Input
Amino acid sequence: MKTAGLLNEIRELNLAYLMLAQQMIREDRDAAMFRLGVSEEVADMIESLSPAQVLKMASANMMLCRLRFDDRVLLGLLSSHGREASTSHLHATILACAQPLEAVS
Output
């Protein structure tokens, strides 16, 4: 994939993430903060973004969402085929709760 195509894919991902995050925060703030892994301060900022700000942020050349694949155990639980899926996902959720929230520096 060429650089221009890759940047377009990143912009689309950013836009989808920000729009979904805003919707989640507006519908159930506490659940959204947990699922997104963000602090209350970051949730406030995301919720207050205007459509123009969302588009401007989405145009960044870096991904705005952070995947939680930095924890090998968490990744293993989410992708394991040998265990019962509901048990593995519950265990992964418990481990994710223990991770620090993203905060604005």
